[in-house]
Amino acid sequence: MSLSSSLLSKLRLVTVDVTGTLIAYRGQLGDYYCMAAKSAGMPCPDYTRVHQGFKLAYADMSRRHPCFGHAAAMPTAEWWKVCVRDSFARAGYEYDDDTFERIFRRIYATFGSSAPYTVFPDAHRFLRWLRRRGLAVGIVSNAEYRYRDVVLPALGLNQGSEWDFGVFSGVAGVEKPDPRIYEAALEAAGGVAPAEALHIGDSLRKDYDPARGLGMHALLLDRFRTAEAESWRRSGVPVLPDLVAAREWLDAGDAKDKEEAEHVTAR
């Protein structure tokens, strides 16, 4: 895998995706929906059916009211209430209003906490390493305000120690793969030029392509050995297994750059 030897020395900003890059879900989403239904005294729905129902409901809500209802000034809780109810309905489960309200309150509270998430063990160290190098670190995520205000801090990923600023779709009103979310990050970092920024994510469509299209550097993580990753590699995309490898990737270029500089000086 090649790397421009001077990339690290040219960077002023690194932007990072969240889910799949810094954190992951504990278990399946359907598990949490099922537990919420059981807590309300209802039979446990089929985990897989609810999970599939959620994916369809979420995609539909994202089309009708993107960025968690930002343009329609829809409250975040209301957006999720419609999505969760539709998730159960698509899985074949209907509840009366009082029962659904109890189920929804538990689901909404759960996903507004650290409970369903886990931090990858290399995340804190990598982000702090970047900041020690004098680089600005920005979060770029298709997420609503609770990621910024509650979830990330509860996981120990704090603004000021692990990251400097965040651009969250539910707050900014623009979401990946729209390149404007990356433009917003460059602006938030003080007007950094695209060529001075690197984006790290786990999606070719949402992370790599829009960042590169804007002129940023980019690389992808393949933490779960997905089938698509091999085709990404064949097309020339830098694909790494984790943030430890990402640091080595950046360090290798930096070390080569210093070695070449020392060689020129010695002549």
Automatic annotation (TrEMBL):
<dbReference type="InterPro" id="IPR006439">
    <property type="entry name" value="HAD-SF_hydro_IA"/>
</dbReference>
<dbReference type="InterPro" id="IPR011949">
    <property type="entry name" value="HAD-SF_hydro_IA_REG-2-like"/>
</dbReference>
<dbReference type="InterPro" id="IPR023214">
    <property type="entry name" value="HAD_sf"/>
</dbReference>
<dbReference type="Pfam" id="PF00702">
    <property type="entry name" value="Hydrolase"/>
</dbReference>
<protein>
    <recommendedName>
        <fullName>Haloacid dehalogenase-like hydrolase domain-containing protein 3</fullName>
    </recommendedName>
</protein>
<dbReference type="InterPro" id="IPR036412">
    <property type="entry name" value="HAD-like_sf"/>
</dbReference>
<dbReference type="InterPro" id="IPR044924">
    <property type="entry name" value="HAD-SF_hydro_IA_REG-2-like_cap"/>
</dbReference>
